[in-house]
Specification:
The protein is an all-alpha fold and 287 residues long. It has a domain of 195 residues. The chain is globular and about 50 Å long. It has 14 helices and no strands.
Length: 287
């Protein structure tokens, strides 16, 4: 029997991404706020992608964006019955596709560009300072009236912190037991506050500690394994598969999601088995 190595960082990313597809159906059963849960998952996914990118050449990061352009373009024209007419409505379609289907990877690519610019202007350490400032600003906006303005996409402040933090993590062989204990302690306290006192500060600090630990313990970062192929298959092709299934079969969103997840798993396994560079970069953005 063949065996394969499991990379915890990649496996957790794949599980969380797939789980996020089912949040609309499970949030009420779990008695949690679906938007809060999705935000916490996105924080890890953005940190995970940032950590991967930090070990890549710039050209490979650009190659990672190929499926974003390809699938977004396909979905825009699919939504308009492939009428190749460029009009103002296409911009609204593009915004819909990006914000509803490919928001995580689009945000990561944008942060990558912003971080490069900031690093060249003010230096790498200063750009991390911008990330910390963004996180503090988010907490202040969530928990006080000191700042006289608010905006809809303020979650991006937290996401930017995770991006710059993860980009500077260096792999470590030795596990930090104190940080693990601290992360679990914070998580227990935050869950207690939410369940028994109905208090949510806008973000869980334990997510930062646990994400940091998981990423830092992942040593074989540059090796593209099976779990990573599956993650990028769920990140890119799954969205197209879901839209196509929804238009082709008369079934509930839950059933379509299950079929889409299983279909994408098969595609991810197939791409991992054949490992054709052209197809990999075209459909999942990595090789």
């Amino acid at each position: 029997m063949k065996s394969f190595k499991i990379n915890l960082m990649d496996l957790i990313a794949s599980i969380l991404l797939v789980f996020s597809f089912f949040i609309p159906f499970l949030a009420n059963s779990l008695k949690v706020n679906g938007e809060v849960l999705l935000m916490l998952i996105n924080c890890y996914l953005i940190g995970y992608l940032s950590y991967l990118i930090s070990f890549m050449e710039t050209k490979k990061v650009l190659l990672m964006a190929i499926p974003l352009i390809l699938f977004s373009g396909f979905l825009i024209f699919f939504m308009r019955d492939f009428k190749f007419v460029f009009e103002k409505q296409r911009l609204h379609d593009l915004l819909y596709v990006i914000t509803n289907l490919y928001d995580v990877i689009f945000v990561v690519i944008c942060f990558f560009v912003i971080e490069i610019v900031l690093s060249r202007i003010v230096g790498g350490k200063a750009s991390l300072g911008f990330g910390v400032a963004a996180l503090i600003l988010y907490y202040v906006m969530q928990n006080s009236d000191i700042i006289p303005f608010d905006f809809y996409y303020k979650d991006l402040l937290v996401y930017f912190f995770f991006f710059v933090m993860a980009a500077r993590i260096k792999p470590a062989v030795k596990f930090n037991n104190f940080l693990l204990f601290l992360g679990i302690l914070f998580l227990a306290g935050e869950i207690y506050l939410y369940i028994y006192l109905n208090y949510y500060p806008g973000f869980y600090l334990s997510t930062i500690i646990l994400t940091y630990l998981i990423l830092k313990q992942s040593l074989d970062v540059e090796c593209v394994n099976r779990q990573r192929y599956l993650f990028f298959a769920y990140l890119y092709p799954y969205k197209v598969i879901y839209v196509l299934l929804k238009s082709a079969i008369n079934a509930s969103p839950f059933v379509i999601t299950i079929i889409g997840v299983l279909s994408t798993f098969i595609i991810g396994e197939f791409l991992y088995k054949i490992k054709v560079k052209f197809l990999d970069y075209l459909f999942i953005g990595i090789h």
